[in-house]
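User: Okay, second chain of the day. Same drill as before: sequence in, structure tokens out.
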Amino acid sequence: MGVFLLVESMVVFGWLLYVTQRVFFGAASEAAELGADPPWQMSGSLIVLAALVIAAPLAALAVVSHLL
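Assistant: Same drill. Structure tokens below.
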């Protein structure tokens, strides 16, 4: 159930970002269309930070359940 909620939240947040970008900023500019992918170091650090953000509540729940 928790995995479903996480996936649903990510999909809804992505859709919200997509719609917000289209409504407020319009189509991407020509300069943005020519942009390149970030280097692997930037992508790797983003993935590590995202994993930590997902793992932090799990660690907090373990600590709180141990205290109670």
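The two ends are 23 Å apart (CA to CA).

User: Thanks, on to the next one.
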